Amino acid sequence: MRGVAYSPPEATEIPLCPVCGVSSTGLEVGTRGRFDMSVRNIACDHCALVYQSPRPTREAMAAYYASGYREQYGDVGYPLAGGGYARPGDPHFDTAMDAWHRVQGENARALAETKAGDLVLEIGCRHGRTLSLMREALGVDAYGVEPGVEEAEKAREAGIACFVGTIEDYDPAELRFDQIQSFHVLEHLHDPLAALLRMRGWLKPGGRLVIEVPNVYQPYGLLEENFFQNAHLTNFSESTLRVLLLRAGYSVLRTLDRGSLFAVATPDAHVSNVPVPFSPKLLPDANESAIWVADRLKTYEILERLRVLLLATGPTMELLNELAGTLKRPGFVPHTVSTVTQMADYFIGHEAPRAAMFVAVAASLGPYPADVCASFQGLALQLQSTAA
Ligand SMILES: [Zn+2]
User: Fold this and answer.
1) Centre of ligand 1 from the C-alpha of residue 309, in Å
2) How many whole angstroms from 7 Cα to the centroid of ligand 1?
3) Most exposed: 122, 267, 282, 386, by fewest CB within 10 Å?
């Protein structure tokens, strides 16, 4: 990135919590983000949303998206079937891109039960590939909103009725949609509640909203070196996304956790244009407090670092003891399960069954649901009999 003239926007604005709107204070859960940028995230005292505070202003982010953002984060690559990524100009780029957008469209169809003839609007549709593929496969009428001028032009060339601008500028006049979809956009918005309220007004009665966002309970990579990013103003969980949708006047039909988080919602019949006031009663699980989240993010971070170290250096007694200590802390269940399983497999593959057993036993004693502890116990017993 040396020699590239970009300047990340400064974080100068202390917002009220974007989900509950109650408070501007919380528990600090991170101070850095990708590319070693200063990105401070807190967990809200009232709804446990993890969000940036302070954060760059709307104007500063708009200028950044128009200039340095793409340069800094790099061209969007698409995963290849055989592993690795295809970047623009690579021979298999188009195939990889289509495969990825076909899955995205198929996810949306399956979640929202999209039908032929439906009017589908995508917020942040980029070059319109997901919409084009949905139109080919299903025969939907495709509309888009995209602030990137070049991307929007590509969408128009593909026959999408694409508005160039932001969701705040868009006005569909009398048009109402059967489905509005938005993938990995909500976490970039300064006021996601206002955006969802606007979208609700554009849906037909019984219309469906499909949202996909990263899940802060299933981060990827190290939090401060990868997952937290300056452009992600909010880091949703299933709980906080649900509260936001309820406040914007939707009924949540279902949520789905596939690493990233999906929600399908429909406008409430009693439509009003003001947000539903926040109340702790809206929270699906009162246990998920700021401390609850902060504790688990901390465990996640330690486990990720230990996993990398253990796989690199092998099971030293010091590292194994640190791991056993960490597994006594509360963590995100899917992450702990996958980490412990991966470590155990690795040590078995490297003829260190005692280290594998040690990890499984330590995990079985952790503060996890009974069925999870039992499965770790089962793994330990199995390893014991193999080692014997
Ligand atoms: Zn909050």
Assistant:
1) 35
2) 30
3) 386
**Same domain, yes or no, for 200 and 134?**
yes
Residues 133 and 251 in one domain: yes
The model's pLDDT over 82-122, given as tens digits with 9 standing for 90+, comes to: 888 888 888 888 899 999 999 999 999 999 999 999 999 99
182 C-alpha to center of ligand 1: Å? Answer: 22
- Average pLDDT score, the chain: 92
Task: Give residues with Cβ within 8 angstroms of 385, minimum separation 6.
Answer: none
**129 occurs within a structural domain:** yes
CA of 91 to the centre of ligand 1 (A): 46
pLDDT band at 270 (very low <50, low <70, confident <90, very high): confident
State pTM to two decimals: 0.92
User: Crossing angle of helices 370-387/353-364, nearest 10°?
Assistant: 160
Total count of domains within the chain: 2
**Phi, then psi, of 39 in degrees rounded to 5:** -135, 105
Verify that 259 and 321 share a domain, yes or no: no
Give the per-residue pLDDT at 232: 96
- Ligand 1 centroid to 46 CA: how many Å? 5
* Domain range for 194: 78-286
